[in-house]
Design brief:
Elements lengths: L1 E4 L2 E4 L2 E3 L2 H14 L2 E5 H6 L4 H7 L3 E4 L5 H9 L2 E7 L6 H7 L3 E5 L3 H11 L3 E5 L9 E6 L4 E4 L2
């Protein structure tokens, strides 16, 4: 798991800048095939680091808190293979489910609601935070932020 802010990444306790960002991301993708990226600029300022992901070119599961259909499309153009959506209004889900051929995961404070949205719109699964639990049988990934990784739990 990588956190991105201002074009820099933090992996465990080390911060990478400039060309080292792309090198580190590419190495992690080579090691793990797919890296979960939390884009803090996307989540807090609706300004994800899309140019960075274009340079990396693949192997990214992006959690940038898209707010609408256009944001999801921008994330796809940037090269994300999987996308996590947090806090988006349901009114956009039908269009996303019809237009997007990538794996879409729903996260949220309300796990029951996220599970219902996955079933209703035929998304791939849910992403939950470390302290959340899910009783659902759908594909579930848990972010262990304190330890710096994400793991499939169902």
């Amino acid at each position: 798991m990588i956190k991105v802010r201002g074009g820099k990444i933090k992996v465990e306790d080390e911060v990478y800048r400039g060309k080292k960002v792309i090198e580190k991301m590419e190495k992690m993708i080579a090691d793990y095939e797919l890296v979960y990226v939390i884009d803090l600029d996307g989540c807090k300022k609706n300004s994800p680091n899309l140019e960075l992901y274009k340079k990396v070119g693949g192997g990214i599961w992006l959690d940038a808190c898209p707010r609408g259909v256009e944001d999801v499309m921008d994330i796809i153009v940037a090269g994300a293979e999987k996308i996590t959506i947090w806090g988006m209004r349901e009114e956009y889900f039908k269009e996303i489910s019809e237009a997007v051929e990538r794996d879409i995961f729903i996260g949220g404070k309300d796990v029951k609601w996220a599970t219902e949205m996955v079933r209703k719109y035929n998304f791939r699964g849910i992403v939950i935070e470390e302290k959340q639990e899910s009783m659902s049988k759908i594909e579930t990934w848990k972010i262990f932020e304190s330890q710096g990784f994400i793991r499939r739990v169902k």
